[in-house]
Amino acid sequence: MNSKFAEIDQLLQMDSIPAVLEFMVQQFLADREFHRVFEVRKMQTRHTLGLPIYYTDRPPSTTPEQNRTLEQAVLAACREVGQLLVLSGQIQTAWYYLQPLDDSKFVRDLLANAPVTPENSQEFLEVALYQGAYPELGYQMVLDRSGTCNAITTFESIQGYLSLADRTMLATLLVQHLDRELRQNISRTLTNSNTAAAEFDVQAALPPGSLSSVAEFLKNSEEVILASMPHLDATHLASVVKIGRWTDQAELWQCLIEFCDYGALMPESLQYPSDPPFTETYRDHRLYFQTLLTREPELASELFAEKFTAANSPAEQRAVAAAWAELLYRIDRPTTAIEILLKIAPAGDANLSADLLNLASLTPTHPGLANYFRQQDDLLSYGIVQLLDRQMQVDL
Questions:
Q1: Which residues contact 123 (CB under 8 A, 6 or more apart)?
Q2: In whole angstroms, how far apart are CA 371 and each of 314, 343, 362, 379, 382?
Q3: Which bin fits 158, alpha (ψ -120 to 50), beta or left (φ > 0)?
Q4: Distance from C-alpha of 156 to C-alpha of 343, rounded to nearest angstrom
């Protein structure tokens, strides 16, 4: 131990402050005292700038250029120490240093290669999923370790905090997971039944979410499947079909259509309703996903129009209109989507204004938008719509 202190004394006799600081960095790296590495890295930058190597409050005499250099050095030290902590399995502590970086790719690459052990798995999940460092990786851990039920509950509890991209990815993972589970269970049933359909080996089946898996089982062995239903928890199926509306790939929509076809074969007592306007879970969702695939809105619009007219309350009308407009938006019908939302414009709903403003970025010239925001005394949204309109005219 004394040799470490003697080394510092010797370096100081040579009047080499940078050498002392670098010696300390290397010593702390060897001892895995990464927090102290962070502190010495800051001291190195201060010395380079001619500032005191240690202080609690930054000297008021520091110039703007010095401040920028100090801030960049802190971020570099955060990157270095955060990486060291992740690779040593200290995930929660590492997150303290990684958060200021605003570099999600760097963080996600780190977590993808982090050592996950029984001892740190919970803190890994906390950082990756619940604190948003790498939701996809964290959610895959939930699926692998805790199964469908916990994965559904987890999605429902955190979806409001996720970006659209992360929410879509998590929904994709969940749909693919249930697809594998359903095919495995049906395959096992068919194999045990000694039917001709036993040739369908799940190991040889197409990839998760492919165009034919469950549909092909139903086509070849519907009687056996009907007799052995359900092959998974009916509440899980209904929940995943609902969550599947967040997906954005044609092969997943086809997979969800197959889920709906399967669910429609279950006993009526197991066909649990969803929130309006998807009260008939499998019929309504099937039409929704079919519309996304074909991009032809006629049948879905007819259904939503009926549900809008039959709605029992303004809140239910709002739910129908929002789902209807969202579907139209997804198939590139923004003008029609705006008209649907304006049908319930007198409600002055804040969520409605947000929906309309999002659509305005695609169709700012719709005359009803400016009038609506004027009536709502919403100067900000009115100004945005008018400016978008003017900007579009200039671009043309």
A1: 91, 92
A2: 22, 13, 17, 11, 8
A3: alpha
A4: 30
Whole-angstrom Cα Rg for the chain: 29
Name which of 350, 322, 348, 347 is nearest 337 in CA terms: 322
SS (H, E, C) 209-257: CCCCHHHHHHHHHHHHHHHHCCCCCHHHHHHHHHHHHHCCCHHHHHHHH
How far apart, in whole angstroms, are the C-alpha atoms of residue 189 and residue 175? Answer: 21
What are the tokens at 175?
Answer: 């749909």
In the numeric block, which tokens belong to residue 338?
């705006």
* Residue type for position 149: C
Q: Please count the residues of the chain.
A: 396
Q: Which residue has the tokens 């194999």?
A: 191
Amino acid at position 134, single letter: Y
Q: Are 82 and 38 in contact (CB under 8 A)?
A: no
User: Contact 240/262 with Cβ under 8 angstroms?
Assistant: no
Cα separation of 133 and 185, whole Å?
Answer: 34
Check if the beta carbon of residue 224 is closer than 8 Å to that of residue 197: yes
Contact 190, 198 (CB under 8 A): yes
pLDDT tens profile 275-298: 999 999 999 999 999 999 999 999
CB 289 within 8 A of CB 298: no
Q: Give per-residue pLDDT as tens, 71-129.
A: 999 999 999 999 999 999 999 999 999 999 989 999 999 999 999 999 999 999 999 99
pTM: 0.84
Place of tokens 């800051």: 42
- Dihedral, 102, 106, 110, 113 alpha carbons, nearest 10: 150
